[in-house]
Fold each of these.
Amino acid sequence: MRDQVHPEFLWRNPDPRPSYDVIIVGGGGHGLATAYYLAKNHGITDVAVVEKGWLAGGNMARNTTIIRSNYLWDESAAIYEHSLKLWEGLSEELDYDLMFSQRGVLNLAHTLADVREGVRRVNANRLNGVDAEWLEPDEVKKFCPIVNVSPDVRYPVLGATLQRRGGIAKHDHVAWAYARKADEMGVDLIQGCEVTGFDISGGRVRGVQTAKGRIGARRAVALAAAGHTSVLAAKAGVRLPLQSHPLQALVSELLEPVLDCVVMSNAVHVYVSQAHKGELVMGAGIDAYNSYGQRGSFHVIEQQMSAALELFPVFERVRVLRTWAGIVDVSPDASPIIGHTPVENLYINAGWGTGGFKATPGSGWVYADTIANGRPHPLAEPFALERFTTGALIDEHGAAAVAH
Amino acid sequence: MLLIDCPWCGPRDEIEFRYGGQAGVAYPEDPADTTDEEWAQYVFMRDNPKGWFHERWFHAAGCRTWFTVRRHTVTHEITAPEGRGRDAAGGA
């Protein structure tokens, strides 16, 4: 990897043309990855990514950057593992240091039910070719010495799952790398361009109304708008099983290296890693109520801190630098929705909820393939909107590792 | 933190409550005659507006009343619900 010298501009800033083959709504990680794979894998370069704010300024700038693929069900393991494999070669492919660090992800178990669920998930992962180990408390202590495994706490650590190939990456670099490559291949990245409506006739979407005028779409309009998907879909007359919630996170002041893995706990609602720069990055559970306000309630932060302190007494005097929230689109089964909508040529990629960052490459890959071929990619097929009618849900509340 | 106006106890902190989601989601009138599409609408599909929203809250750590409020999903401002009873089951 060559040294990273930041050029002033990584992409053009064009005005929209009158029409494109494909319009992607949302310039976050998933939208940018979709544009990149449309161009690279399918030769479709007449593509616009329209973004109401600036590129990667929504959840891409607000997540806790954890990457893993240790999901329970076959369908989820397949798509998240596809994503993890792409991560493993992504810095080279995009010629950009994504600071992808496979430092291992621990998912702690605090109750007998947690232990059973964790062991079951380790076995399921192995059967699906996903690396997974079960650690007893003393092994947890060995892997991550600053975790408190004392039995004398309210929620003692009874064990943990470990995915050694899991880790973190630098979120901004991921977005910038995809944006730069997509731009180089001819994709127009159009910022400050909110979509206000859809042109639909004969049951088919033919373009979008935006803050910068109408833009025609010859082949497809593809939503990649995370927490705002319901609002957009409603403009196209589509009702979705999504609810938008705040998901809060915080960072500490910069510290010397103290934590060299990712530690997650579903039961006590906290997940922690230490970024390369030195700050501790901690995420919470979602706020219970629906919101688009990009902020949450303070008691959620308070509970998250108390959980973190019980797990890591060594953090007692660490100061919080700032807290924030992103708006996550939560689906009933904690799994994404990818594929067709009732409107012809209007595609959806949403419902990643609290865990979309890790899926960025895999999601973009299968979504681009779905759009290019007008049929769901095999890995996306189980995640169709129709599953809420057929009942073929993919319940990943256990593996989601964030309380919903 | 939200300050939620319980119809019985008055304004209380959010931590005393549990969230119930969209108000006015009625159980199908004739379950035996309800199609899979209609079941999907009832069980899974929900409004998710950016703006005013009628929603259910449960005063779990207080009087244990279920009631409806009107809340703005961007400003989080809470008012009494419009044209409907606060305690009607399902929010009417």
Amino acid sequence: MSVVGERLQPTLFERSRPGRGGDKIPHPPKDALDRLPASARRKTPPALPEINEPEVVPGWAPRGDR
Amino acid sequence: MLEALGIADVDALFDDIPVALRASRLDLPEPQPELELAARLEALAARNRTDLASFLGAGVYRHWTPPAVDQLLLRGEWYTAYTPYQPEISQGTLQSIYEYESLIGELMDLDVVSASHYDGAAATAEAALMTCRATRRTRVLVSRAVHPHYRQTVAAYFGGGLEVDEIPLVADGESAGTTDVAALERLLADPDRPVAGVLAGHPNFFGLLEPMPEIGRLAHAAGALFVAVVEPVSLAVLAPPGSYGADIAAGEGQPLGIAPQYGGPYLGLLASTDALVRQIPGRLVGMTTDVDGRRGFVMTLRAREQDIRRDKAASNICTNQALLALAASIYVATLGPHGLRDVAALGAARAAELELALAAVGAPRLYPGPYLNEFAIRVPGARDVHRRLLDRGILAGLALADIEPDDETLADALLVCATEVTTSDEIARFAAALEDVFGGRPPIGVEVGAGAERSERPRARAGSPR
């Protein structure tokens, strides 16, 4: 019996498209982090998914009953 | 069933518990109709001060949460604290946990993430225990700048032959308020008491950035593991634990879309390198394929767990905070990497604005080192000033004497923070109220905008906090 597979949605990471999402809060000043030592700063952003809210929300809505 | 068990009544099941330790009759009020109970709870809730301009952080932070987070959490299908044992009927829940673990892994830059723990303190204590299991040593060193409640929780977990020693902080100079690495080196050098793990917070309890690469290097040179205790939103802009050699990272997940709540529930984050995957407690969910080659999600490496291995398990608490882990996933996915960076950077900008405003009215920073969005300020008579500011509608962070009453260096200090929800108007109101409490002039001895000397307030001045 196979009950998995077709009903699963792609993961958040598979649905990611560069440049999507964001713009939820005001942009900070460009120099907001300048007072932090360079050695303490993150070199590359975390590879989190980039998804628009209308695309991200339905992913959870029907999933709980599966 | 009683007959099958060969006992006369249910009370016989508790015969092994000494009578003196059993609960006597529970002193509870009579049951109330739901309508009346709801009214009573609403009346209690109305006593909460929601009108305050809050600068309180100290481990729990106010953030703006996209409405989608709380809306999705209302779906009853998610209402369980438990990871499901039957993958064939639980693919949705398992996928959500797999995604949570993957998202937190990216933030931490570490390989393995547990399905969650009760809170940041519990996750930190579990991390400390992991270092003992992995090294077969029995002593851990915890920086005094790790959250006091976390240190207390580690101490509570460490009974039965395990030892906790505290690493003191630098007392003065540019590094004041951070972990004393020279003292750490001395503590690590005792050949008769080898160290399993070194724990440091970043940012630490006072909001300061710690020399994490240096602490990790010293720990590893002594054969110990390095545990970073972190705040997740900061990881959008600060170097993540994996980048500076942390073997384990623990932290409080509340800032990721979970409202500040008195007493929780909260979300314990715990992550480690792949080398420690068999030592990490809690559920792990993996992606796999079924017999037909189709994708599925399952709990994995279950031989670590207490329902399989009993007393040899990596942990005997594996209840997870699934609903709050889901909140964190929705929050992170909705904001994305750029949104999360904006949250952290805007909080840093607001905090810098707060620092300037408070210094201008005579409350300079207590410690000079770099910080992200939280810092301690020097305020003579801090506890009294805190109370008087509350009367003026300002929640002026935490009087550090309330949480560290035995530390004289913290007697005249408030711990304050700002996040993206802090407004310039709130900052101006805080500064004006503080100036009012100070009596219109900065306390004598404080040089505004410079590293200030300890101040003494004149007793006679009107509006003096003492």
Amino acid sequence: MGYLDALRNITIADIKVDLMRTAYDNDNALLNKFDPRVVIIWAAIFVIVPWFFYEPEPLFAMLVAALLLAYLSQTSIYLLALLIWGSLTNIGFIVVLSSVVYWWQGGSGGLRGAVVDNSVALLPFTLKLTVISVVSLAAFSAMSPKKLAKGLLSLGVPRPFTFAIAYGYRMMPVLLEEYHDLVNSLRLRNKAPENRGLLRWRYFLYLLKLSIKAFYPMAFNVAKRSRVTVEAMETKGFSHSLGDEASRALRLGDLEIQPRDVSFVTVSLLFVVVVAVYL
Amino acid sequence: MSTKQITVENLTFRYPGSDDPVLQNTNVHIDTDEFTAIVGGNGSGKTTLCKTFNGLVPHFFNGTFEGSVRVDGTETTDSDVSALSRTVGYVFQDFENQLVQPVVRDDVAFAPKNHGLADYETRAQQALETVGLGDAADRFIWELSGGQQHLVALAGVLAMDPEFIIVDEPAAQLDPHNARETYEQLQEIQRETDVGVIVIEHHTEFIADYCDRLVMVADGDVAWTEPVDVGLNHVDELLAEDIHPPQVTQIARELPDDRGRLPNGRYPVTVDQAARCFRTVADGQRRRATPDGRGSGDRLISVSDVTHGYPTLREGRKTVLESFDLELYADDRVALVGANGAGKSTLLRLLTGLESPDDGTVTVLGQDTNETLPEELADETVYIHQNPEEMFVEETVREDIAYYLKSREVPDTDQRVDDVISFLDLEDIADRDGRLLSLGQQRRASLAIGLATDPSIVLLDEPTGSLDLQSRREVTRMLSRSDSRTETVVIATHDLQLVAAWADRVIVLGPNGILADEPAQAVFEQPELLQQANLRPPQVVGLSERLGVESPALTVSELVDQLTAAEVR
């Protein structure tokens, strides 16, 4: 049952560690080195920029650049794969559907021609979606929660929201652990299907059901924990800090835009200009 | 330094929607120059009382509040929670949920920052150094052990430079070793800095060793406040609230002719006092350790040459077990003991098949776990999680108990579920949601879930968790009930009282594998071995050693018998 082992041991534990690395280990991530406000604004610009291009070549260049940035920012391979798989299947579905409709309506060139035509037509759109997903993923997963919260706070986002980000990061490992434990607990009390079917599909369907069933208890347990958290927040002076200017000043004190922030934005914009002119 | 006071006068408090007051006409006075312990049965109102000190009652929990609580001269009703928390720090019982920032340093600095204190960085660093975590400042909270997380919560409180610190049941969520370290930390803080420390505690052995004053809360009122030595002598009153006096006090009370009394007429409460009070037993009654169960039955489980670990964020794969060999036989009562991180839980999970070893083989009842699904192994094996919460997936305890039987389409499911429920006296909670029960009740319910499966191998991970006395009783009952069919039981535990009373084979795990694999008696004869594994023998073992009994008594009654017999001769 070798590959099953791989599936239940290595992958679950490794995916967990990989996700944790994306979320927590940002010390060397490129995008974490800049001022958080700059990164947030930069990401906002680059979510819009791809929509001004209509040819596949410049978009492709942008995708390469975005992937490079994602790599330098230590974005999770699993998340990237999931994201790209998501856009491909989504677009793939549209291609298949529209082609079948075209062919069925008696369009010229047959089914195969329709698929090719539609794919080409949808390519820029796919690329745009992928570029903005990769860019935002890279930016937001690279920044440490503290930086991200600080950046948003200084841009005027209310403090309860920025606190929620830091708290979310604090809770994520707890959630993962809780979920894994619950799935395991369910497995020890269930019976796996005896007839596993072709490629074990029954077995995987059964695992899928368990993983869905574990969600509710997980949400319940985590919600229960937060009762104490709310009390503790009160004792730690959280509500006091909401209206306290001194506290806000401390929180934002060391934010400063430095030359490297400026050069980062300049280089990115130059890149876009070069792409626009030459490709 | 002048002392500060908390003064409670004629306090009555009723939670909204409840007819009976939690606290009724309560009066108590607590000083900063003492280490105070508050004891009381479940629901006696001790936690509510402590929450009046920092204003959570009545500012956060609104209710009917009469009387007065003054903290260092300030009437709590005239202040608010965040202001009062600068004077009174609170470490909650489930302290993990008190930590709200991902990084240690940020969490400790959280409160000072909220209060706009410019020196928050120095405060955080100092607080961390006080609790001995100076070099963990940049680590993530989730990377720390439970004991370290508790210290972070404590540091978060210290960073505000409070006059009082309240710690709610430190021993309930920590293993005994960490609980003891926490107590030492608290004692030092109290002595060095004149901060008043208040703990809510059930475990009288900690109270006897570390605290100065004992406040007894019963039925919403402070029954009495006494110095610890005197207070712990009110044995009957303590027992009436389900609080067990220290083992040495129990022994002293059992000895005939008041022989257990100290010159001042009281019973001893610490091993030290008892050792001075009881006469040394001239040995000569050395008992032979009973031979262990190895080889007496069939081999049920074999772990051979197993290397196993888990991936970590920064340090690659961490190996927990290396070239590990172990065989377990029918009729073994195995206790797996050892420091945190020695691999006790990992070993149990390997036996369930939830994890398969990186290297080597684990065979359970002739099935290689590499080749078998955990669901199939669960036909004969039951594993009870150390955190009982993870065992509840249905909406009532009854459904949770039936879950296993239903998924396996066992014919008389309802009958069996009813049997188990009545055996463990769960009738009153059977139709409630398991996740909303108290920890003690959850533990009992989780034992019921295990018992219903009628297994031949039982794996229990920390069944008495926090050394809670009632759950120890329930575990023992469950074990006796399952004796008929069960062939072997493996318990991973810190609870050496349970080990002393129950196990016949003790496996001590150290950082490099098995340190010892011997009968319980033999293990308790080697104090250095226990120390190596971060374990502390029960008082009765420590005392018999101090009294010169060469083969230590393992239970209170055993030592009472030995002491009585020695006197007669």
